[in-house]
Design brief:
Blueprint lengths: L7 H4 L10 E3 L25 E5 L28 E2 L1 E2 L7 E4 L2 E6 L5 E6 L13 H11 L6 H6 L3 E8 L2 E6 L6 H6 L2 E2 L29 E7 L3 E6 L19 E5 L4 H9 L5 E4 L2 H7 L3 H4 L3 E7 L6 E6 L9 H9 L3 H7 L6 E2 L17 H7 L26 H14 L3 E3 L2 E3 L7 E7 L3 H16 L4 E7 L1 H9 L5 E6 L8 H6 L1 H4 L13 H11 L4 H18 L2 E3 L1 E2 L2 E7 L2 E2 L10 H8 L1 E2 L10
Parallel strand pairs: 2-13, 20-21, 20-22
Antiparallel strand pairs: 1-5, 3-10, 4-5, 6-7, 7-9, 8-9, 11-12, 12-13, 14-25, 15-25, 16-22, 16-23, 17-24, 18-19, 26-27
Helix pairs in contact: 8-11, 10-17, 16-17
GO molecular function: peptide transmembrane transporter activity
Protein name: ABC-type oligopeptide transport system, periplasmic component
InterPro entries: Peptide/Ni-bd, SBP_5, SBP_5_dom
């Protein structure tokens, strides 16, 4: 294997490809070819013990192990089973280090990338990972049998070519700096997954509780009634000594218990039924995550800083509904949310209002557009709100000299301009139809959202708007989201440190018509499509920032979301005896960091799975 650190910019114009241990979208990877482990792990962490966790999301039950299909609810923790050709690090952005692959070569023209598969790589059935398996994985994920977003995500990869049993080449539709990393990050599974003893195959979209044949560090040991699942660390895991794996996967078993709602989940933690609680509700952290076990040190609360972008969380307005197609209406709804009151009364002043789709990063648009941004925006000036060419909008403020009353008066004027007037006890349009919509949520999070939604609804009532809060179980909720059958719902778009093709899935016109896509707001804009194209084809960090700023300006001035709030920390409560590395990662989710790098510093009283 040839060594050295790859500078992608140089590679794309180099006279020939060079095989390396890692790649970066911009600049050089942080870790050299001979690195021993990531800085944010403890290479001497002891192995052992059983980590018990609760629902990591709103999921309250599961009915499949296959995370790549549209229908059904995937068991939590299934990502512990799957690996990819490369993996990123959590203290840098947009880099990829060999995992299943031990060599990476980007073609001089940037139109393909070739991976050599580590000959030691093995699936859970003991068979080697081959180029045929990688090709099968790509072809399957792009097929109609997989969830439609995968065809979008990997759409710029035209094909995978098997060079030999250990070498695979991905070819691209056009040069794009993100695509080599995207190809390397594709999940890989055995082509024998779903194959029956007689050689026939279960359709990929029909795989449910057939255990995946994958290469990851954990195996499914047992599960019960869609409510609990236990993973066992594979004693024969092929990659334990790899630099990207040293100091990780320290628990012998990881168990997930799914509770019916947040109240039951919290009480179960206090009762000692599981080990770690990641708290997303500020009020709970202050008022409810307390008690005797916290007082005597059996349970510990700690705040961990993180540098993630915020992503976007808020009330998503489905513009497929005629009610939300006028930007003045959407802006009026934004004016009706009193964040300052919520922060004082419910959040104990622990939050900051989200004012960008990329807040807390240098990707957030600020001030007037730069020349690079204007070059992307000017061709669409006639189709864009003139305000896009000014500073980004400020979120409504009710702290003095501002007030909710002033904001609602402004909202009423906007609604009147849009043809909505108050008469006969309600806000009505020219046809006399009342302004009425539903805020959809699932039962797993409704307890936390209910006081927030109630406050929002009360403010909307002052405008003559009738909003109702509809709660459903997670399966029904997810089905409605997948089919875009909702008016408004609360969603968090995950943060990204380097925006890429996932933005097309969230905001591209094609995704708006693809059920199961992430384009919840239903945005279909040629201007946004053009900006997204510039974003994914950016050749420098500066071009990427200009494109992201331009996208942020258009989205924020479109008022497609009533933004919520964010915190730059992770709030974690845990049982005494758990430990973590001294050096924290920069960009990380709390749950993934805990399962991958924590360990038990003190022996457990109960060593067997619970």
């Amino acid at each position: 294997m040839m060594c050295g650190v790859l500078a992608v910019a140089g590679l794309l114009v180099a006279p020939r490809a060079q095989a390396v241990h890692a790649i970066a979208q911009y600049g050089d990877p942080k870790y050299p070819a001979n690195f021993k482990h990531f800085d944010y792990v403890n290479p001497d962490a002891p192995k052992g013990g059983t980590l018990v966790l609760a629902n990591p999301s709103r999921l309250t039950s599961f009915d499949k192990f296959n995370p790549f299909t549209l229908r059904g609810n995937t068991a939590p923790g299934v990502d512990l089973l799957f690996e990819s050709l490369t993996t990123g690090s959590s203290d840098e952005v947009a880099s990829a280090y060999g995992l299943l692959a031990d060599d990476i070569s980007i073609a001089p023209d940037g139109l393909s990338v070739t991976f050599h598969i580590n000959p030691r790589a093995r699936f859970s059935n003991g068979e080697p990972v081959t180029a045929d398996d990688v090709k099968f994985s790509l072809d399957t994920l792009k097929s109609p049998q997989a969830a439609p977003q995968f065809a979008s995500i990997f759409g710029e990869i035209t094909r995978a070519v098997v060079v030999d049993s250990q070498t695979i080449r991905f070819e691209f539709r056009q040069r794009n700096r993100e695509l080599p990393l995207l190809a390397g990050g594709m999940p890989v599974f055995s082509r024998k997954w779903g194959m029956k003893p007689d050689g026939s195959r279960i359709r990929f979209d029909q795989l449910a509780f057939e255990k995946p044949i994958s290469s990851g560090p954990y195996l499914i040991e047992q599960y019960d009634n869609g409510r609990t699942i236990t993973y066992r660390r594979d004693p024969n895991y092929w990659g334990a000594a790899l630099p990207v794996r040293v100091g990780t996967n320290n628990f012998d078993h990881i168990v997930y218990k799914l509770y019916s709602d947040s109240t039951a989940r919290l009480e179960a933690f206090k009762a000692g039924e599981y080990d770690v609680l990641v708290e997303y509700v500020a009020r709970n952290w202050v008022r409810r995550d307390v008690g005797k076990k916290f007082d005597n040190g059996e349970l510990i609360k700690q705040v961990f800083p993180q540098h993630n972008g915020t992503g976007m969380q808020g009330f998503m307005l489905n513009t497929r509904r005629p009610l939300f197609q006028d930007v003045r209406v959407r802006k009026a709804l934004d004016l009706a949310l009193d964040f300052q009151w919520l922060n004082r009364q419910l959040f104990f002043n622990q939050y900051t209002r989200i004012d960008s789709f990329f807040a807390n990063t240098d990707l957030q648009a600020k001030g007037l557009p730069s020349p690079g941004e204007l070059a992307l925006l000017e061709p669409w000036r006639a189709k864009l709100d003139p305000a896009v060419f000014g500073p980004p909008p400020k979120q409504p403020d009710t702290d003095p000299p501002g007030s909710l009353r002033a904001n609602l008066l402004q909202a009423r004027a906007l609604l009147q301009q849009a043809g909505w007037t108050y008469r006969d006890g309600a806000l009505r349009n020219a046809k006399g139809e009342p302004f009425r919509f539903e805020i959809l949520d699932d039962s797993g999070s409704s307890a936390q959202m209910e006081p927030i939604v109630a406050t929002f609804i009360r403010n909307l009532q002052k405008l003559g708007i009738e909003a109702t809060f509809r709660v459903s179980d997670f399966a029904v909720y997810q089905k409605r989201l997948d089919s875009f059958d909702f008016d408004t719902t609360t969603i968090r778009m995950p943060d990204v440190q380097v925006p890429g093709s996932e933005q097309i899935e969230r905001f591209g016109s094609k995704a708006a018509d693809t059920q199961g896509s992430d384009n919840m707001i239903g945005l279909k804009s040629p201007a946004v499509d053009a900006i997204l194209s510039a974003l994914v084809h950016a050749q420098t960090r500066e071009q990427l920032i200009d494109a992201t700023h331009a996208l942020d300006r258009v989205l924020m001035h479109g008022y497609y979301v009533v933004p919520h709030w964010y915190s730059a920390t992770h709030r974690v409560a845990f049982k005494r005896g758990l430990a973590w590395p001294k050096t924290l990662p920069l960009y990380y989710s709390a749950e993934g960091w805990i399962t991958s790098t924590w360990w038990f510093a003190q022996p457990q009283a109960q060593a067997q799975p619970r």
